[in-house]
Queue: 2 jobs
Job 1
Amino acid sequence: MEQSFFLKLDANGLVPAVVQDCETQAVLMVAWMNQEAYELTRRTGQVHFWSRSRQEIWRKGATSGNTLTLTAMWIDCDSDTLLVQVKPAGPACHTGNISCFYKQIK
Amino acid sequence: MEQSFFLKLDANGLVPAVVQDCETQAVLMVAWMNQEAYELTRRTGQVHFWSRSRQEIWRKGATSGNTLTLTAMWIDCDSDTLLVQVKPAGPACHTGNISCFYKQIK
């Protein structure tokens, strides 16, 4: 891993990562990356996260096949949040919805 | 405040809120809401957050004039993240950039 890391990690060593479809611009999901997930994403071009519930690295789509291929990555002004633009291979949500944000608050 | 709250708040009583321009679809910023910020946003139609650094409710644009008018709100499959679609009155970022995500990682 890199010696000094440019992202400002939270107390758990994580940053939120907003995933956006590079073509439709839809916000697909929000998950968390640690330094390892970030570096794996950069190195492989396939989006990886840190699963807070399972406490392990998770390559999105490893089980479902619904991978996310990285197209561009941005950090915010505070360097504590990532915007990850992707080309999705299928629905991003485990429910089968294209986006995890399928429930509108009325 | 509502008696039982449908959002799953984290250990600090917060959820991340991704703010997206309703017209350009650009992701403008990510900030945090507690129950009060959520309810103020719903009631007033002006986006409010919880400032973790100042530990207070913060109406976006109260000082700068760069307010965010709510157009739609969505929750994700886990009910622990908000997608807030808005019409921005000006640049969302305190740096004067339209979006806080103006630094691309090369």
Job 2
Amino acid sequence: MGFRYDIRLSGSGGQGLILMGIVLAEAIGLYEGKFVAQTQSYGPEARGGSSKAEVVVSDEEIDYPKALKLDLLLCMNQKSCDDFYMDLKPDGLLVVDSTFVTQTPIAKAFEIPFTRIAREKLGKAMAANIVALGAISKLTSIVSSRSLEKALLTRVPKGSEQLNRQALKDGMTAARKALKNAGSQTGNNWVDEEA
Amino acid sequence: MGFRYDIRLSGSGGQGLILMGIVLAEAIGLYEGKFVAQTQSYGPEARGGSSKAEVVVSDEEIDYPKALKLDLLLCMNQKSCDDFYMDLKPDGLLVVDSTFVTQTPIAKAFEIPFTRIAREKLGKAMAANIVALGAISKLTSIVSSRSLEKALLTRVPKGSEQLNRQALKDGMTAARKALKNAGSQTGNNWVDEEA
């Protein structure tokens, strides 16, 4: 079996997780030459307001497109974090929106306030999903920021390109800080100050 | 094994097939109480401009979310029709956009000029995917027009609700005509005249 990388993006309905999944899948599938399957599932429970989108990346054709054990789990609210962290691989990466996730169930996680950043820096809390995408491109090597921007700009409404580009950038900046802090073992992965 | 219904929406990139897949999946999954998995896959060939979205509907949890033998195949261009008609079940339903599909490979098909209808009736060829969704709600019993409209209106840009509602209606009208003609065995599933 070749390389396979399983991603789940989770949170509540209305946080734009499906758009995130599509943009991430297109960025990797169309611009990085890999095989990608992107899935969302709905069941009777979906009406409760939980939402998730999955992206599976491989260097060969994907037989089973649902995410199995996760290499990357993004949680945009507490419930999704509680529900899904057990699906992570032992060395899987957990990234949470610390605006809403106050109890991170495992020690090794990146806690970045995506929604707060979107609200304070962009004046638009709804852009938190795009801030998170930008962060993912820095925290993992699964997608380049250039592919991500290309895919994103074909999927967003006309006139919102500048906002979305900035949201990606703010996410990357926040991720760089989180990586730096993780390196210095402060236990707090994000700081408010510009440094 | 319970009820399972496999759908593939296919055509070229830019025809809005992924949005169609999401709207159809949300309509069925959120408003009709069924289990639904919605998938798109990208591979090195995707850059050529082909696009497809799949929707699997079941009355129980879906283990394998990729479409298998198809109950419904929508083809928005000739290439997708040529590539995929063999994946239909013997009694599967083929629906084609006859604006672009000039050679239908099987006799039992609904041929409706979705793009022409969108262009002529709505002044917007891009709405062909929504016209096709409206038609699907009349040609199959997999989704009600009410669920479809509800799901659609949460996914389209603000200000475009009226256009999208009308696109659904135009699709339903065209489908009713096609059904009537199929019943009277004229061999031509769509007529231009209003009567």
